[in-house]
Write a structure and sequence with these properties.
With about 450 residues, this protein is mostly helical. It is built from 17 helices and three strands. The protein is about 70% helix and about 0% strand. The chain has a three-stranded mixed β-sheet with strand order 1-2-3, with no helix packed on it.
Length: about 450
C-alpha cells in the first residue's frame, strides 16, 4: 500500500507543480478560466486531501511517537482553527477552506520524507525538474525573443493604456503575469535542474539541462526583479558559506582563520561573477536601448515602481499599514482571508481598503493572519529546523545531493518571503518545495553523497 501511495504522490507532485506555474503563464491562465480553472484548483485540493488521509493512516500504523516538529505544527493548526472561529463574521467559509488546504498540504508535503526513501524522493524531484522545465523554459525563451526583437514593446493596461516594457523602461513581463514570481519560478527550476544534472548524467539531458539553465538565467536577469537578485545572491552566498565550512570541517584540524579567509575570497569571486554576467547581458542590452530609444508618446504609462525614488515598490507603505491593522487583533490574528475584508468594513477610507494590497511579506502575513501565538509557534518550528540543520552540517560525513538541494530551496524561499506574500496558505510551487525540503531536513534522511 505504501509503495502505491508513494508512486501516486510522485505524479501528484508533478501535477501540482505544473498547475502552480501554469497560473503564472498568461496563455494557460487565460485559457484555463471559469469552470476549467475551478476544476483544476479543486483537483489539487481534493488530491491533497485524499493523499493526506492515506498518509495519516499509514503513519499512524507505524506507532511512531510524534517528534517536536510535528507537535509544533499540530499546535499551529490548532491556533489557526481558533483564529478562524474568532473571525467567523469575515470570510468564514474561505477561512475554513484555507485552513483545510493548509493542513492537507502540510501532511502530504512535510511528511513525504517520512513516507518515501531518499532515492525515490530524489527521483520525484528529477521528474518534477524535467516536466516543469519542459513547460516553463519555452515561455522564457519566447519572452526573451520578444524582448530582443522589439526592444521597446508595450503591454496593455487594464484601462487600455499601454505600459512600455522595454529594457530601458523596467522589466520583462513577457508571457508571464508577474516578473517577480516568474523569475523566482526560474530560480527554483534552475536549482532542480542542477540537482538533476548531478544525479542523472545522461548525455542528452546534460545538453538539455544546460540550455534550460542558460535560458532561465537570462530571463532572471532581464526580469530586472530586485527581489530575485537579492534572493539569488543570498542563496549563492549560502552555498559558498556551506561549501567553505564543510570543506574545512572535514579536515583533521580546522583552522578558523583560514576558513574565514577562504569564505571572504570565495564570496568576492561569487559576487564578481554575478556582477560580470549581469553587466555583460543586462547593461549591454540596456545601452543599446538608450541609443535607439524612440520618443515617449503621451499615452505611454511610466512605470514608477522601478525608479530610484521608489526602491521598495510601495512595500514599506504596505507594511506600515498592515502593522497598524495587526494591532486590532494581535493575539490570534485575522485568519487566512479576513484581513482585507475586515479593513474594508472597519476602515473603508484606509490605504488597504482602497488598494486591496496583500502584505508582500510572508512573515508579516504570518503575523497578521495567525497573530502573535501562531507566529511564535511557527517561529519555534523554523528554529528547530535550523538547529537540526546545524547538527547535520557539523558532522564530518558528506552531505547527500538531496540534502544540499533541499537546504538551498529552503534558503531561497525563506529569503523570497521577505518581499513577497504568503507561502503558507497558498497553492504554489514554492509552498510545495518548502515543506518537502523542511520535512526532509527534519526527517534525518541523508543516505549517500549521490541520491
Amino acid at each position: 500500500m505504501r509503495q502505491l501511495v508513494n508512486r501516486i504522490t510522485c505524479w501528484y507532485i508533478v501535477f501540482y507543480a505544473l498547475y502552480s506555474i501554469s497560473t503564472r503563464f498568461m496563455p494557460t491562465a487565460i485559457f484555463c478560466q471559469g469552470t476549467l480553472a475551478d476544476v483544476l484548483y479543486k483537483s489539487v485540493i481534493i488530491g491533497a486531501g485524499i493523499l493526506a488521509l492515506f498518509y495519516f493512516l499509514l503513519l499512524a500504523k507505524t506507532r511512531r511517537r510524534p517528534d517536536k516538529s510535528l507537535i509544533l505544527l499540530a499546535a499551529f493548526v490548532f491556533l489557526l482553527g481558533i483564529s478562524t472561529l474568532l473571525n467567523r463574521e469575515y470570510e468564514f467559509t474561505g477561512n475554513i477552506l484555507g485552513t483545510a488546504t493548509f493542513t492537507a498540504q502540510l501532511i502530504v508535503f512535510y511528511c513525504l520524507a517520512r513516507m518515501m526513501p531518499e532515492q525515490m524522493l530524489a527521483g520525484c524531484m528529477r521528474r518534477t525538474a524535467l516536466f516543469t522545465s519542459l513547460f516553463w523554459t519555452p515561455g522564457c525563451a519566447i519572452s526573451l525573443y520578444q524582448y530582443i526583437a522589439n526592444i521597446h514593446y508595450t503591454t496593455p493596461n487594464a484601462d487600455f493604456r499601454f505600459i512600455r516594457q522595454g529594457i530601458i523602461d523596467g522589466r520583462l513581463f513577457g508571457l508571464f503575469s508577474d516578473p517577480n514570481f516568474a523569475a523566482f519560478t526560474s530560480l527554483l527550476i534552475i536549482l532542480l535542474l542542477v540537482f538533476t544534472l548531478r544525479t542523472w548524467k545522461h548525455k542528452i539531458f546534460v545538453c538539455y539541462g544546460a540550455v534550460c539553465i542558460f535560458i532561465n538565467m537570462a530571463y532572471i536577469i532581464m526580469s530586472n526583479s530586485r527581489t530575485i537578485y537579492i534572493t539569488a545572491v543570498g542563496t549563492l552566498l549560502f552555498f559558498v558559506l556551506l561549501a567553505t565550512y564543510r570543506r574545512h570541517r572535514q579536515e583533521e584540524t580546522m583552522d578558523k582563520r583560514l576558513m574565514k579567509r577562504d569564505f571572504v575570497r570565495n564570496t568576492l569571486i561569487a559576487l564578481a561573477s554575478v556582477a560580470a554576467v549581469y553587466a555583460a547581458i543586462f547593461f549591454s542590452m540596456q545601452g543599446i536601448g538608450y541609443v535607439v530609444a524612440p520618443d515617449r508618446d503621451i499615452d505611454d504609462m511610466v512605470r514608477e515602481d522601478v525608479n530610484l525614488e521608489n526602491l521598495s515598490n510601495n512595500r514599506t507603505t504596505i507594511w506600515k499599514n498592515y502593522v497598524t491593522l495587526y494591532t486590532d487583533k494581535p493575539l490570534f490574528g485575522f485568519s487566512v482571508r479576513s484581513a482585507l475584508p475586515y479593513a474594508t468594513s472597519k476602515y473603508p477610507d484606509s490605504y488597504l481598503a482602497k488598494t486591496q494590497y496583500v502584505t508582500h511579506n510572508g512573515y508579516l502575513s504570518l503575523l497578521v493572519e495567525t497573530g502573535l501565538t501562531g507566529f511564535l509557534v511557527m517561529g519555534a518550528f523554523f528554529l528547530l529546523t535550523f538547529v537540526q540543520f546545524i547538527k547535520r552540517v557539523r558532522k564530518k560525513e558528506a552531505l547527500s545531493d538531496s540534502y544540499v538541494l533541499f537546504t538551498a530551496i529552503t534558503a531561497a524561499v525563506l529569503m523570497f518571503l521577505f518581499c513577497f506574500h504568503d507561502v503558507f496558505f497558498t497553492v504554489n510551487i514554492e509552498t510545495m518545495l518548502l515543506f518537502i525540503a523542511i520535512g526532509f531536513i527534519n526527517s534525518g534522511q541523508n543516505i549517500s553523497k549521490t541520491s
